[in-house]
């Protein structure tokens, strides 16, 4: 980990030099790839149903995905603890593919988006560090958010171009949503990207946010009342499946996936819970 940490610190210094040589490509991609390989080796990345619980971290993630009744499961997810070799950072996301190649598109975005985002974020930091008019410490949270915002915008544009140029995937008739979270210390950045089929939440008559068949209050109650945190995502998904069948009889169940993040240590009753889910459509 020490080697990768020094690599990460050197990334900022090398990016500005490499930027001019790579005509718009992130110069730190090789370093980001190396970080991803090391994270996978150290079991810091989860790309399937399961849990992420790293020693010494107060983060806990429960992940579960269930295939619907429409064919292959086109959902996929990722949780990356110590994102970019930073102990206070975490990345997670759920990707809902659609169309004949949707499952391939979703998996490709899952693999490329975190690395591209990490690379662009570090590039933005490097550029800000040499900008005499930019003062990160003056309003740290706001400036950090703006850096992530622009990093996300650049990342999504890059991933979209890469999909369009892929020779084996028809991304014109297929695509994916991308509902992701980055946690950096006390800062939580939520980004939702998708087409007309992507619905994160809808507004009811009283102004509250609800899913199609499970309300926010129900979701929080389900997660907070689950004794075993590791089973919280599975219980939430199973409840959503039952609610779908009860409220939408005769309509094939969609793929349903959830990531439940716990940001504080036990007891469970005092924990803050944030749900990253592929909403029911």
Automatic annotation (TrEMBL):
* SUPFAM superfamilies with a match to the protein in the record: PP2C-like
| Annotated InterPro entries | PP2C, PPM-type-like_dom_sf, PPM-type_phosphatase-like_dom
A single Pfam family it belongs to is: PP2C
For this protein, the record's CDD domains field holds: PP2Cc
Q: Which GO terms describe its molecular function?
A: protein serine/threonine phosphatase activity
Gene3D superfamilies referenced in this protein's UniProt entry, alphabetically: PPM-type phosphatase domain (3.60.40.10)
Q: Outline the extent of the PPM-type phosphatase domain.
A: 60-281
Fetch the PANTHER family from UniProt: PROTEIN PHOSPHATASE (PTHR47992)
Could you tell me what this protein is called? PPM-type phosphatase domain-containing protein
What organism does the UniProt record list as the source? Camellia sinensis var. sinensis (China tea)
Q: What is the lineage of its organism?
A: Eukaryota, Viridiplantae, Streptophyta, Embryophyta, Tracheophyta
């Amino acid at each position: 980990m020490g080697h990768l940490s020094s690599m990460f610190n050197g990334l900022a210094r090398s990016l500005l030099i490499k930027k001019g040589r790579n005509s718009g490509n992130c110069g730190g991609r090789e370093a980001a790839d190396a970080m991803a390989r090391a994270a996978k080796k150290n079991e810091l990345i989860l790309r399937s149903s399961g849990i992420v619980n790293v020693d010494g971290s107060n983060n806990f993630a429960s992940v579960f995905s269930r295939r619907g009744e429409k064919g292959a499961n086109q959902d996929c997810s990722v949780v990356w603890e110590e994102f970019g070799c930073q102990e206070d950072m975490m990345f997670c996301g759920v990707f809902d593919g659609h169309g004949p190649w949707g499952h391939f598109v979703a998996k490709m975005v899952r693999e490329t988006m975190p690395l591209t985002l990490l690379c662009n974020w570090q590039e933005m930091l490097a550029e800000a560090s040499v900008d005499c008019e930019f003062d990160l410490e003056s309003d740290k949270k706001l400036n950090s958010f703006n850096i992530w915002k622009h990093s996300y915008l650049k990342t999504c544009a890059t991933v979209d171009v890469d999909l369009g140029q892929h020779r084996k995937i028809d991304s014109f008739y297929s695509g994916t949503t991308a509902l992701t979270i980055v946690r950096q210390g006390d800062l939580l950045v939520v980004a939702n990207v998708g087409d007309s089929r992507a619905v994160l939440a809808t507004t009811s008559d009283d102004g509250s946010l609800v899913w199609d068949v499970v309300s926010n209050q129900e979701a929080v109650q389900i997660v907070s009342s689950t004794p075993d945190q590791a089973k919280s995502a599975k219980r939430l998904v199973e409840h959503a499946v039952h609610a779908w069948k009860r409220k939408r009889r005769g309509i094939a169940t969609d793929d349903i996936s959830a990531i439940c993040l716990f940001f504080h240590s036990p007891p469970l009753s005092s924990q803050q819970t944030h749900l990253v889910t592929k909403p029911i459509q």
